[in-house]
Amino acid sequence: MAMVEDYRVNVTGPVFQNAQNRFDVDASGSVDIIDALTILALLQQAQRLGIPTPISLAPPQSLAHPGHGAAAILRR
Amino acid sequence: MLIPGTAPPPYYDVDTSTGHRNKVEISDILDVITELRRLSARGAGPEGESAPAIASVTVAADSTGVPVTPLDTTYASSSVVYESRSTGLTAQDEAVVAVAAALSADDFSVTSATTEEDGSAEDYFAALGAVGTTTSSSLSEPEEELISALAWDSSGGKRK
Hints:
The complex is a heterodimer.
Chain A: H1 33-49, E1 55-56, H2 70-75
Chain B: E1 23-24, H1 26-41, E2 57-59, H2 73-76, E3 82-84, H3 91-103, H4 121-127, H5 141-149, E4 152-153, E5 158-159
Parallel strand pairs in B: 2-3
Antiparallel strand pairs in B: 4-5
Helix pairs in contact in B: 1-3, 3-5
């Protein structure tokens, strides 16, 4: 008698990357210059706040929840 | 548990190659620009414009004449030839130049009319015709100055 087992497979990938199109930063559905400027604006904001770059997006384990990365802090 | 791509946008982490994952940095911008150029070469760029034909971008933000090495090798190896004669450019400044270069057709003087003394970087990007809803108003003063510097004739040091 054959045994059947179920395996749960978790596909992991970059959390802070658009899974549909990695170049579509603002999730507008297309890639345009706004996507580049969006990143640029964040880097500039970090520079003004004295936050070192590159900006780390990896959340601390205790805060493993979307929106707790450095970018979220900058947005506040 | 975090699920890939489920964080709310913006999705800043474009470049997830080794050493770049979960970081926001210039390479993320450069990746977007590279993609824009690729799309443009296919005729699918912003507003269907043809591929940019950038021969060179020269920034003459000061008169020291000291070249600045592009900070990112990806950018250096791209088809955009970048020459900087400023000693004060930051990585963000270089990104601004890269964005401008990616947008411009082949002549920065086309937009110089909007970078007069009372012009702004927002005007600059708007003049390029590829930005409908611009976010360039978030540019800091150094970037504004850099954009203005693009309007200077590097050979003669005079505004075109």
